[in-house]
Amino acid sequence: MRLGDKTQGLKKTDLEGVRLAGDRLQDYVEFWERSARTDAIRAIADATALLALVPPGAVVLEIGCGIGRVLQHLGAGAREVHGVDISAEMVDRGARRLAHLPNVHFHHGNGYDLGDFEAGHFDLVFSTFVFQHMPKTIAFNYMTEAARVLKPSGVFRLQVPNLLHEQHFAAFRHFTQPYFVENPYPMNFYSPPELVRMLEAAGFGVTDLDDYMVVVARKGADTPAALLASGLADQERARYRARISELEAEVTRMRRVYDLPVVQAALKARRRLLRRPP
Ligand SMILES: C[S@@+](CC[C@H](N)C(=O)[O-])C[C@H]1O[C@@H](n2cnc3c(N)ncnc32)[C@H](O)[C@@H]1O
């Protein structure tokens, strides 16, 4: 496609009509304030699956909660439910909509950190259809913040589109259309290795990662080798290096055993025996 080409096949939703004016945090705030007046939220997450990740009576936080579509289903199963969002308008609407749920609380965040929340407070932090809409640097900052506010072994569940998945790649291609040069839309795609790498660096072990990049991570846990093997070049190199050191240590140990006088004597005797005719 060339810039002058007419956009083909663009499914113009109201949300895609909203333009990101620049790359400052304030531009993102304005984008989501305007989005709140359109078809802002089409996502419904599986609240039951979320609650299954934690014991009953858990304390839960959603990053990018919008008007609380998911939060409203968590109120009954959790002790405390919090949502934080960059858009004051989403937060106001959510708080009004869910005013009848006393354990559901909305917070207007700064779009960058979880400064409203104390360290080690939550059993579960989650985010759905949000991290793809922010710069990857901010997404990573939220990951480190999620690790900070989670209790030891707390669970972090998030979802981002997978660049290596056929359907998600089609969505990626959709955003290459010339229309989006004139109307920039904040949309980032991830590959599994980079997502695992960011979560590990933030202090998580990834315990589950499906093709749709719904990822479950646990604070302080180890990522199983099978997940690490999904293309993490330097981690794999580190594993090979460790294995090579183990093998070298084994060779040194065997050489020392070989050189022992008693072993040398036994080998000599064996050679003599083998030479002797039956
Ligand atoms: C597509 S909506 C999804 C809302 C909700 N998670 C759901 O599944 O129904 C994206 C939400 O993320 C919020 N958001 C975008 N960037 C954010 C950021 N940097 N920090 C916090 N919230 C953000 C938007 O204001 C919006 O409410």
Gyration radius, rounded: 27 Å
Shape: elongated
CATH architecture level-2 label of the largest domain: 3-Layer(aba) Sandwich
By CATH reckoning, the class of the largest domain would read Alpha Beta
- What is the CATH homology-level superfamily of the largest domain? Vaccinia Virus protein VP39
Question: Average pLDDT across residues?
Answer: 89
> Compounds present?
S-adenosylmethionine
Q: Describe the biggest sheet?
A: 7 strands, mixed
Question: What amount of the residues lies in strands?
Answer: 15-25%
Total helical elements: 11
What does it look like?
The chain has helices at residues 25-35, 47-51, 71-74, 88-97, 136-149, 166-174, 179-182, 192-202, 225-228, 233-259, 261-275, and strands spanning 59-63, 80-85, 104-108, 122-127, 150-159, 204-209, 214-219. By secondary structure, it is α/β, with parallel strands linked by helices. The longest helix has 27 residues, at 233-259. The chain folds into two domains: 15-228, Rossmann fold; 233-275. 31% of the residues are buried. The protein contains eleven helices and seven strands. A seven-stranded mixed sheet has the order 3-2-1-4-5-7-6, sandwiched between helices. The model has no long low-confidence stretch (mean pLDDT 89). Helix 4 (88-97) links the parallel strand 2 (80-85) and strand 3. It is 41% helix and 16% strand. The termini are far apart. The structure holds S-adenosylmethionine. S-adenosylmethionine is lined by residues 28, 32, 40-41, 43, 45, 63-66, 69-70, 85-87, 90, 109, 111, 128-130, 133-134, 138.
